Amino acid sequence: MTTQEPVKNPSRNKPAAAILLPWLLPACALGLWALLSMGGLVPPYLLPPPSQVLDTASNYIFAPAGSGPYAGRFAGDALASLGRVGGGFALAVALGLPLGLISGRLRFMRLFLDTFINGVRAVPGIAWLPLALVWFGIGFKTTVFLVSLAAFFPIYLGAAAGAMQINPLFLQAGAMMGLGRGQLIFSVLVPAAMPHVVTGLRLGLGIAFAYLVLGELTGVPDGLGAAIMDARMLGRVDIIIMGILLIAIIGRICDLAMVGGLKLFKSVRRL
Amino acid sequence: MGRGLSDIAAAPCLKVEALSKRFRVNGHHISALEEVSFEVRSGEVLGILGPSGCGKTTLLNIIAGFLPHDGGRVMMDRRPVTGPGPERGVVFQEDALFPWLTVAENVGFGLRNGDGKAGRRVKVERMLEMVGLQGYGHYLPRAISGGMKQRVALARVLVLRPAALLMDEPFAALDAQTRADMHELLISLQRRLEQTVVFVTHDLEEAIKLADRVLVMQKSPGRIRRDFAVGLPRPRNLDSLEFLELKRSMYESLCGQEPGIPAGG
Questions:
Q1: How far is the alpha carbon of A270 from chain B, nearest alpha carbon, in Å?
Q2: How many CB pairs under 8 A join A and B?
Q3: φ, ψ at B73 (rounded to 5°)
Q4: Chain A CB within 8 Å of residue B68 CB
Q5: Hey, what CATH class is B1-87+164-174+187-258 in?
Q6: 3-state percent breakdown (helix, strand, coil) of chain B, nearest 5
C-alpha cells in the first residue's frame, strides 16, 4: 500500500495523430504563405517568401550584434519585452487574483467593485495609451501600465467566477474539520476555484502580449514591438512578419511554461 | 443493545433547548423550527425523522454551526455552539470530498498539526482500514463509487474523533444494497467507537434500523411530534413483529393520524 500520487499520466504513449494534429494548421498556413509569395500572386514587397523571413530571422537571432541593421538584436529585444510582460502580468496577478476571489465570495464586495471594474473594462486599451504616455512617458512604465491594465480583467473575472461557483459544501466541510478563515482560503477556496483561475491567468497572459506590442509601438528603443514598428518605417515587411512569428512563439512558450509551473499545485495537476 | 443504568447516568453530550428558526421568504416570515428541545446522551444514536420541509436539515445545520438560530440554544458538552467545529463532524448528503485531494489526503485533511507526518499517516491508514478502504488511499474521489465516497466522508470525520457525528441523509443517494452495507458499517463503527450519532432521514426503516431513539418531526411549524425509544436488540430483524409494529406507529405519527404527544414520551 502506498500513499503516492495517483500514477496516471495520459500524455505518455500518445498516438501519432495526437502529436501531428497540433502542427497541421501551422503547416497549412506556411504552405499557403509559400504558395502566395513564391507563386507570384502577391509581390514580395507585400509578402516576402518564407525563405527570406527565415534568413532575416537567423541574422536577427544569431549574427553578431552591429554587423547589420538588425543583426543580433533578438536577445536584447526579447529580454526587454519579457521584462515588460513579466512586470505588467505580475502586477495584474497581484491585484486581480485577490480582488477576484474576494468579490466572488462576498456579495457586498461584488456590488462595490463590479460596476467600476466593468466600466473600466469597456474602455479599449488603446484609449489609455495617450494618457499613459502623458503620465509615464515613453518606455517601461507605460508598457507595464498597459499590460497590467489589460491582463487584470481576465484574471479578476476568472478568479471571481471560480470563487463564486465553488461547491458551498466544500467551505462548510473545511470549517467543520476545524479550519480557520485563512486556512479555508488557501486550502479550500483557492484549490476549488483553480479551474477558472487558470483560465483567467492564461487569457490574461495572452492579452499581456497583445498590449506589450501596443506599448512598444510608441517609440521605445528596444523590444519586439519596437523592432516591428521600426521595420514598418523602413519598409522591411520581412522583419514585421518575423516579429509577429517570434511573438507568437514566445507567447506560446510562456503559456506552456506558466501552465507547467501551475502544475506544481495538486488542484491544477488533477484537474 | 439495551440501555442500562450506566447509559441513563451518562451526561448529555448534546442539548438543544427551545430552539427556533425563522426564514424570510418573499417578505413573509416562515417558522422553520419552533420550540425544539431534546438531549442526546453520549454514545447514543438519535434519528430525526420527518417529511420534507419539516426543518430537519435546518435543525442539523444549526447543530453543526452552519446556520444561526433565532431563539433558544444548542449546548455541546456544556458549551454553546457558535459555529462549525471538529468536535461536531458532519457527513453531507451529497459528495463533498475535495476532488483535488486523494482519498488518503481527504481523510488526513482535518489532521492539521500535531502527530507529525508519520503519525498522521498511521491514523489515516488505520481509519481507511476501519471503513474498508485499505489500498484505496491513492485514488482520486472521481475514480471511486458513490458508496466508497461516503465511506471516505465518514472516515475524514471519524479520524478527528468528534464528540458527535452529524449526518444529513447520508445514504439517500445510494442504491439499496450499498445503503444496507453502509448501515452495517455505521453500526459496527458506532459500537466500536461508542460514537454519539445524530442523523436525519425521511426513511422509516433506516431510522428504526440505526437509531436508539427516533424523533418524529412535523412541518409548518417544524416541531418534534413524538420521541420514540427503539428498544429492539441488535442486530435488528426488519421482519420481526416488534419492528413492524414500531414502524406502523411511527408511520401514523409521521402522517399526523394521532394527536401530538409531547416530546419525551
A1: 6
A2: 80
A3: -155, 160
A4: no
A5: alpha beta
A6: 35, 25, 40
What are the pLDDT digits (tens) for A9-41? 555 567 888 889 989 999 999 999 999 998 888
Taking alpha carbons only, the member of A216, A181, A227, A219 closest to residue A57 is A227
Q: Which residues of B touch A270 (CB under 8 A)?
A: 99-100, 140
CB contact, 8 Å: B119 with chain A? no
Q: Do A176 and B137 touch (CB under 8 A)?
A: no
CATH 3.40.50.300 in chain B, residues?
1-87+164-174+187-258
pLDDT tens per residue, range B40-68: 999 999 999 998 888 899 999 999 999 99
Model confidence at B117, pLDDT cuts 50, 70, 90, reads: confident
Q: pLDDT tens, A108-147? A: 999 999 899 999 999 988 888 889 999 998 888 999 999 9
What is the distance in angstroms between the Cα of B245 and the nearest Cα belonging to chain A? 38
Of the candidates A222, A208, A211, A250, the residue with the CA atom closest to the CA atom of residue A80: A222
Q: Where do the H-state alpha helices sit in A137-189?
A: 140-164, 168-176, 181-184
